[in-house]
Write a structure and sequence with these properties.
The complex is a heterodimer of chains A (804) and B (274).
Chain A lengths: L16 H30 L6 E4 L5 E10 L9 E5 L10 E5 L15 E5 L5 E10 L2 H23 L4 H8 L1 H14 L2 E2 L5 H45 L3 H37 L4 H34 L10 H39 L2 E7 L23 E7 L2 E7 L6 E3 L4 E5 L3 E5 L6 H17 L2 E2 L4 E2 L2 H32 L4 H13 L4 H26 L7 H23 L8 H27 L22 H25 L3 H9 L4 H30 L2 H5 L27 H10 L4 H39 L3
Antiparallel strand pairs in A: 1-2, 2-3, 3-4, 5-6, 5-13, 6-7, 6-8, 8-12, 9-10, 10-11, 14-15
Helix pairs in contact in A: 1-20, 2-4, 2-6, 3-7, 5-6, 5-8, 6-7, 6-8, 7-8, 10-15, 10-17, 11-15, 12-15, 13-14, 15-17, 16-17, 17-20, 19-20
Chain B lengths: L2 H6 L7 E2 L8 E12 L2 E12 L3 E5 L6 H8 L9 E9 L2 E2 L7 H6 L1 E4 L10 H11 L5 H14 L3 H4 L12 H13 L5 E5 L7 H14 L4 E5 L3 H7 L2 E6 L2 E7 H6 L4 H7 L5
Parallel strand pairs in B: 1-11, 4-9, 4-10, 7-8, 8-9
Antiparallel strand pairs in B: 2-3, 2-5, 5-6, 10-11
Helix pairs in contact in B: 4-5, 4-7, 5-7, 7-8
Classes of the chains: A alpha+beta (804), B alpha/beta (274).
The complex binds adenosine-5'-diphosphate and magnesium ion.
């Protein structure tokens, strides 16, 4: 016989609490899923391409943009509005503008197929119509730049009376007018015929990309030279510290003169090139080429004289002896001279190399700026004031919207209004954009599903792997991801040994005492201290005190160094007490001592401990012969500011209580019988801990690590104080020696959300990035968490079945 | 003379030690050993010798200090903070409570098995060779050899030889206890200390462990605590009766169980008190 099931029958069980608790459960889950859903929807939506609508307004203007919502649909018509993301907009700093429904003539708006959306490196995207594609002749422009040098040199030489007026007369008219016509020619863009626009734009992209690659290479070269220069300067100052201020001044002078010398040499080179160019231009004309030659010779002679002067100045700087002090022996003086002349040589070659690279860069820049697209913007200023009706438009099957007519090689657009007859001319607000500023472009109203998907993934890839653009409003967050991950890993590497060791001491070694209980309670409480407090401490202690000490030694942080003798006495005393303490703890001890002796012993040990601690602190803090590791960078701080190292330290400190508490809990879960068994085998305490206790407690310890990692990745407040910045140009860990740059500031996802969302004047522009970053941060925390949980369960399983 | 009353009133009573014991060579001799937990005295001037190569059983009502005495032998009581001792113990003539002795080395010369099986959470192999590992042995072949010998001696080899890399925690209770015995004998200790090794086991497992102790007799000197009279009489050569921290009677097992000299011993064995 089947018994009626009471348990499964909710109504039969008279327990009303099932409804109450169930209700709470449902509400909680709903809220949580709402939260996740909200974030997920907004972030996934953020990069999805939208169509661009064009509205005609009652005042005869046009407004184009992505529709972000209709408001008040249930309200009367005059209270309804539309919010529109207009992109680049000269009238508003806000990227989303709200439009009264009343001011719009035609709903629904039109979606012209030929609207192009252009995402730019440093400004809002532009929505418009291409009216022209053009290319400047960059080789001509380069020529102009070269040609100018000679003329300006002539002018300055003439002012100095080196070139006679009569020479000048020979090409008084001819050269300037030749230059003028050259400039005119160079500034005249070559318009690309309409049929070839697509092709041309693709070509441009390729050229610009290659050009940008070259520019990057040159910039790398420049920064290499910069580094070399600052390194040799630093080397000089390091060398100088052992000498006197006058020596430092000499080094600075050498660098100045070396720079001028480099410039002088570059000038000679430039003039030669320029003169050669002019001569080629006037090969056939004997009189002119002759006078060009003569003038060139004179100018060159002048420049060479200048150069020689600088050269001598440099030599005298090396040879002079204002810095020689009477105590110097002949040998050290010679050594210092040797050093200076070596320095002068390096500086000179570095500076002239730098100037050469700069010239190359200028040339590349001309190419970079030569490729242009002209857009007709569809923003509010494209007013059609005249309403001059035109009927001769070509595309007569367009009912309402934009009509294009061909004018020469480019296009002209007309607006065919819904309200009036015929088409209206725009007051064209044209905007030239450089191809090199374009990140990507697309035709939003022509895009199919596939195209949208492609664009969407392109944007996500840029978001994940790219650097931020427009102060983080666009582009990627890779530096922030990288910073978060590097900081979190560093933090775990620091906190784990400290936390675990401290917990081992507290649980396994320390004797039960009042003191220990106080410490334990304090540690538990510290786990709940607001994180900003740690940030303040980190800034004051790590950055300013320890960082300042590392940078500039004890004086920098206001600690008076001890006289050498007292320092030596102090350090020996400290050393002795440390060794003594070590001996006392390490020597084999008999357990069975008389209590009074034990007490005296403890008191003595405590005294030694205090001496050792205070002594070591003083020995380090008041060291007399430590000038800091980065005194040559002062007053610019290296470690004496917020940076990766101190941020990791602060976060390690913040998570230390968590790790200690969880580790201690894990350690205390190890059964005493196991430990006894190990001791009975003759194991020492440490052997027992290492072979038995730690493996047994590992899952619990890893739990502590998970908690600390999740906290480290998600925390923002303390990081703001100790090294996180909104935009960092360098990564904290890269391929450049020494790879991990502890003294760099870095970006962090949590702070990125904060600074984008709250520090930004245009919240609407930031919103997509904020949501995308939030979801990324959540994802990273989820991944870290679940990775750690997986690891823990794997170890658990292993421990149950396998040997460890 | 009512010894029970005397002891309860805090007086010392002399132990009744049978002369038959004197024939033996002692591996461990305990002289006037007293122990306090804080201010509470748990062992009172115990003097006895543990014969070499024999099984000696410690019996007595629970709480009388059997475990404490056993744990004093390998100085496991050092781990308790408030312990104080007086008197002397010697392992083969070497003082155990000398202040210059190395406790770690001392423990390595003894093996100990606890009331509840306590295999370590590692493989069977690692469990057995644990004492060798902490002694610094890492040669795989030697470890394997020692492991096999200890497991054979502990009568466990045939049951586990195919799964040495499995966790020791997967064995049954009786197997686990034999594993602990194997761990205790792997480094050939001079004395084996067993603290009620069967009290947590079922009868069949108990029988197996008892057989094992029988087989180890002769090769090892064994000191076993038990509150099971039958067990004591079955497996031990000598029996000591402890009462409230005092050694009352100590003699050959056959005599203690058939013709005890003290009435208290007889009462305890026959179950009249305790
Ligand atoms: N760590 C300890 N601290 C204080 N007293 C203890 C401790 N261990 C045992 N005792 C006490 O010592 C006495 C003897 O205990 P024990 O040797 O375990 O007895 P047995 O093993 O004979 O049952 C008991 O009264 C017990 O309460
Ligand atoms: Mg006991």
């Amino acid at each position: 016989m089947k018994r009626p099931s009471v348990r499964n029958n909710v109504t039969a069980s008279s327990d009303a609490m099932i409804w109450v608790s169930g209700g709470f459960f449902v509400v909680s889950c709903t809220l949580l899923f709402l939260f996740i859903g909200h974030i997920a929807y907004h972030s996934l939506h953020a990069h999805w391409p939208r169509r661009v609508a064009v509205f005609e307004k009652t005042d005869g203007t046009l407004l184009a943009g992505e529709i972000h919502g209709y408001h008040g649909e249930s309200l009367p018509h005059h209270e309804q509005s539309i919010s529109l993301r207009t992109g680049y907009n000269r009238n508003s700093t806000q990227s989303i503008s709200t439009m009264e429904m009343e001011t719009v003539t035609a709903i629904p708006p039109v979606y012209p197929e030929n609207v192009i959306a252009v995402e730019l490196r440093e400004s809002e995207p532009m929505f418009g119509l291409i009216t022209q594609v053009a290319q400047l002749q960059h080789s001509l422009q380069t020529n102009v730049a070269i040609a100018r040098v000679f003329l300006s040199e002539i002018e300055s030489a003439e002012a100095k009376g080196i070139v006679a007026k009569k020479d000048r007369n020979a090409f008084e008219e001819i050269l300037p007018s030749a230059l003028a016509s050259m400039i005119e020619q160079a500034d005249e863009p070559i318009e690309i015929p309409m049929e070839r626009w697509d092709e041309a734009i693709a070509d441009f992209e390729q050229i610009v990309e290659h050009n940008q690659h070259l520019i990057r290479l040159k910039q790398m070269e420049l920064s290499g030279i910069d580094k070399q220069l600052s390194a040799s300067r630093k080397q000089g100052i390091r060398y100088a510290v052992s000498r006197n201020q006058s020596f430092v001044n000499t080094i600075d002078e050498i660098f100045r003169v070396a720079f001028e010398l480099g410039a002088a040499e570059q000038a000679i080179y430039d003039v030669e090139a320029s003169a050669r160019f002019w001569r080629d231009q006037f090969q056939s004309d004997d009189t002119i080429s002759k006078s060009i030659d003569e003038s060139t010779d004179r100018i060159k002679a002048l420049l060479k004289q200048q150069r020689d002067q600088l050269e001598t100045e440099l030599n005298t700087l090396v040879k002079q002896d204002s810095w020689v002090s009477p105590s110097d022996s002949q040998k050290t003086t010679n050594e210092a001279r040797e050093f200076l002349s070596e320095l002068a040589k390096t500086a000179k070659s570095a500076y002239s190399q730098q100037l050469r690279v700069n010239t190359d860069l200028a040339e590349l820049d001309i190419v970079r700026n030569a490729f242009r697209i002209e857009l007709t913007l569809l923003d509010c200023e494209t007013i059609a004031p005249t309403h001059s009706d035109r009927t001769n438009y070509a595309d007569s099957d367009v009912k309402v919207g934009i009509v294009s007519t061909r004018v020469g090689q480019s296009l002209e657009f007309l607006w065919r209004s819904g309200s009036t007859q015929g088409a209206t001319e725009f007051a064209l607000a044209k905007k030239q954009i450089l191809c090199s500023d374009v990140i990507r472009y697309y035709f939003p109203n022509k895009l199919g599903w596939l195209g949208k998907l492609q664009l969407y993934s392109e944007r996500w890839i840029e978001f994940l792997a790219g650097s931020p653009r427009r102060n983080g409003l666009a582009g990627g967050v890779f530096p922030a991801i990288w910073g978060t991950v590097v900081m979190t890993i560093l933090m775990s590497i620091m906190v784990m040994p400290f936390g675990v060791m401290a917990a081992i001491y507290m649980r396994e070694y320390a004797q039960h005492s009042m003191m220990l209980s106080i410490v334990r309670v304090t540690v538990h409480n510290l786990a709940g201290v607001p994180s900003i407090v740690y940030g303040v401490f980190g800034l004051a202690f790590f950055s300013y005190l320890i960082g300042g000490f590392i940078d500039g030694g004890p004086q920098k942080v206001g600690l008076e160094p001890l006289p050498i003798l007292s320092w030596i006495i102090l350090s020996s005393a400290t050393m002795i007490s440390i060794l003594w303490l070590a001996y006392r703890t390490l020597k084999p001890q008999s357990k069975f001592l008389k209590p009074s002796f034990v007490a005296a012993n403890r008191f003595f040990s405590f005294g030694l401990l205090v001496t050792a601690l205070v002594g070591s602190f003083l020995v380090v803090a008041k060291v007399p012969f430590f000038e800091g590791l980065y005194y040559d960078e002062l007053p610019n701080p290296t470690f004496g500011k917020g940076c990766l190292l101190w941020a990791s330290f602060t976060m390690a400190l913040l998570t230390l209580p968590i790790v200690i508490v969880t580790t201690e809990e894990a350690l205390s879960s190890v059964p005493a019988s196991l430990k006894e068994g190990s001791y009975a085998c003759g194991a020492t305490k440490w052997q027992t801990i290492r072979r038995l206790v730690l493996p047994y407690a590992r899952p619990g310890i890893i739990t502590g690590m998970i908690l600390s990692v999740a906290r480290g990745a998600g925390e923002v407040a303390p990081l703001m104080l100790v090294g996180v910045i909104p935009l960092a140009s360098d990564l904290p860990l890269d391929t450049e020696y020494p790879y991990l740059h502890g003294s760099r500031s870095f970006m962090h996802l949590g702070y990125h959300i904060y600074s984008l969302g709250l520090q930004n004047p245009d919240i609407n522009a930031a919103r997509p990035m904020v949501y995308a970053t939030i979801v990324l941060l959540m994802l990273i925390v989820f991944v870290l968490n679940s990775g750690a949980i997986w690891l823990r369960s794997k170890i658990n399983r292993q421990m149950k079945t396998q040997q460890f | 003379m009512d010894r029970v009353k005397l002891i309860s009133s805090g007086r010392m009573v002399p132990a009744e030690t049978h002369e038959a014991l004197l024939e033996n060579e002692f591996v461990l001799s305990i002289e006037n050993f007293s122990l306090w937990y804080g201010s509470k005295q748990v062992l009172h001037q115990i003097s006895m010798g543990i014969p070499s190569g024999k099984v000696t059983a410690l019996i007595g009502p629970s709480g009388c200090g059997k475990s404490t005495l056993l744990r004093s032998v390998n100085r496991m009581n050092d781990l308790v903070e408030s312990v104080d001792v007086e008197g002397e113990m010697e392992l083969r003539g070497e003082s155990i409570y000398n202040s210059s002795i190395n406790v770690i080395e001392l423990r390595k010369r003894m093996g100990m098995v606890f009331q509840k099986p306590n295999p370590f959470p590692m493989s069977i192999f690692e469990n057995v060779v644990y004492p060798l590992r902490i002694d610094g042995e890492s040669h795989k072949g030697r470890l394997m050899e020692a492991c096999e010998r200890a497991l054979r001696e502990a009568a466990l080899w045939d049951e586990v030889k195919d799964r040495l890399s499995e966790s020791g925690l997967k064995l049954s209770g009786g197997q686990q206890q034999r594993l602990c015995i194997a761990r205790a004998i792997v480094s050939s200790p001079e004395i084996l200390l067993l603290d009620e090794p069967c009290s947590a086991l079922d009868p069949i497992a108990t029988g197996k462990v008892e057989d094992l102790i029988e087989r180890l007799k002769g090769e090892y000197s064994i000191l076993i605590v038990t509150h099971n009279m039958q067990q004591a009489s079955r497996i031990s050569d000598y029996t000591a009766f402890l009462y409230l921290g005092h050694l009352l009677e100590y003699g050959p097992t056959s005599t203690i169980f058939t013709r005890p000299r003290l009435r208290e011993t007889e009462d305890y064995i026959t179950g009249r008190f305790g």
